[in-house]
Design a protein that fits this description.
Strand order of the largest sheet: 1-2
Mean pLDDT: 78
Low-confidence stretches: none
Largest sheet: 2 strands, antiparallel
Distance between the termini: 25 Å
Structural class: alpha+beta
Number of strands: 2
Helix content: 25-40%
Length: about 70
């Protein structure tokens, strides 16, 4: 009965349920993080940063709307 407004970036590797909590383990992002990208490619243009920030905000808003914690 779950409705996904936004697809996940990667498929889950495994899902573990313990009582009322669900733990979802995702694949490692092998291309590195944002800091690695900046170190390798330099400053991010504002238009690109705006797109990525909107995507990040949308993903976090979706998780929060489903009462999901993240790190």
């Amino acid at each position: 009965q779950e409705v996904r407004e936004q697809p996940p970036p990667h498929s889950p590797c495994s899902i573990l349920e313990r009582q009322e909590k669900v733990f979802i383990f995702m694949q490692y992002a092998e291309n590195g993080d944002l800091l690695d990208h900046i170190k390798n490619h330099g400053v991010i243009k504002e238009n690109q940063a705006r797109i990525w920030f909107k995507q990040l905000h949308g993903g976090l808003a979706y998780l929060h709307s489903k009462n999901v914690a993240h790190r």
